[in-house]
Amino acid sequence: MYTQCNHCNAIFRVTMKELTAAQGLLRCGECDNIFDAMKSLSQTLPEERRFAKLGTATAAALTDIPPRLKGSHSAARPSFQWSWPTRISGVWWGVIIGILTVLLLLQVLYSSRHWLAQQPFTAKLTQKVCDFAGCNITQPRDIRKIDLLSRNIYSHPNTPKVLTISASIQNEAAFPQPYPVIEVSFLDQNNKVMALRRFPPEEYVTHFQGQLMPIGEPDELLLNITDPGEAAVRFQFRFM
Known about the structure:
With 240 residues, this protein is of the alpha+beta class. The chain has three domains: 2-80, no CATH class; 89-133; 143-239, Immunoglobulin-like. The chain is 28% helix and 27% strand. It is built from seven helices and twelve strands. The chain has helices at 16-21, 46-54, 73-76, 84-111, 113-118, 123-133, 201-204; strands at 2-4, 11-13, 25-27, 34-36, 146-155, 162-171, 177-178, 182-187, 193-199, 212-213, 218-226, 234-239. The longest helix is centred in the middle third of the chain and has 28 residues, at 84-111. It comes from Thiothrix lacustris.
């Protein structure tokens, strides 16, 4: 098959495979013009068609063909490049794929934020990112990992009929977790509850602002509670 440059009228021999690869757009090897090869595509040479109309189609007409068609197959092959629209389209596809990849990664991170918040090496970063992005994190909790290291009870030195309980607790979990509500109950000799009080974190943590219990660091507590009287023979702690 043959095609002709619409700028300098140079003729090239082409194959359908080459046209398909270039999406029909060729670059002329003579004038460097990009043209639509499909518009002038023909099974015969343009000169042959002209002489056929005149009724003098002869083999001699082929002598007028430019020398570039008389050489080897490689010399006759047209010089063409990918068109700008094709290259621009490829760039946009790359941008779209990149954006979709980032969105997918963000979706995975968002779905895994609760798990990431439990890992010691990502907990702080995850919290900061969520604070900035406005997403909520359900803080992991495991009150079974909160140990009561020590406890002691004595009368308040300045206030009558008030007992002060000093205690030390520690977070043994592998992740920071919220401070628990501490329930203190007094029992009589029959294990009947004589008095009970629950202390939220803001009542026993100094300058509490929602911070979490650190890992492996003891916290010293001072709790004040009304003296239940002599009927109470023992007391107990419970974390909630």
